[in-house]
Amino acid sequence: MSQETINQVMAASQAWIAKFNQHDLEGCLEGYLTDASMKVAPVGEFVGAGAIALFWRDFARHHPAELKYSNVDIKVIDDRNAVLAADWSMNIASGFISKELWVKQDSGEWKLAQDDFSVLALSISRD
Q1: If you average pLDDT over residues 105-118, what whole number do you get?
Q2: Which of 11, 101, 120, 127 is the most buried (most CB within 10 A)?
Q3: How many angstroms separate the CA atoms of 71 and 62, rounded?
Q4: Rounded to 10 degrees, what is the CA torsion of 86, 49, 81, 120?
Q5: Of the CATH numbers 3.40.309.10, 2.60.40.1080, 3.10.105.10, 3.10.450.50, which one belongs to the domain with range 3-122?
Q6: Which of 97, 78, 100 lies closest to 87, judged by CA?
């Protein structure tokens, strides 16, 4: 297992979380590959950057903040692919991530190819 790969994926994940907490939606969306997929249980599946953007833009209306990951586990597939799993919580929801597949680009940047997470608790008003 490559500690360097783990450190790079952890840094990419922490940068994504920081953008989320700064309400930088466009920065978060840039963290996904154009053909990425995202499964949000129990909401549904979103394939492609456009569908993922629609989900996050709609969710942003509820003013999510204070996103934190805990119990983070990163499994290195190879030097260009790794899977992150974790528990997550924020001001309006909590759950767990079963699979964030991070893929290293030729530029050295890590991006999400797959994002599978579950929402176990949600406290938002339906408007």
Answers
A1: 98
A2: 101
A3: 26
A4: 10
A5: 3.10.450.50
A6: 97
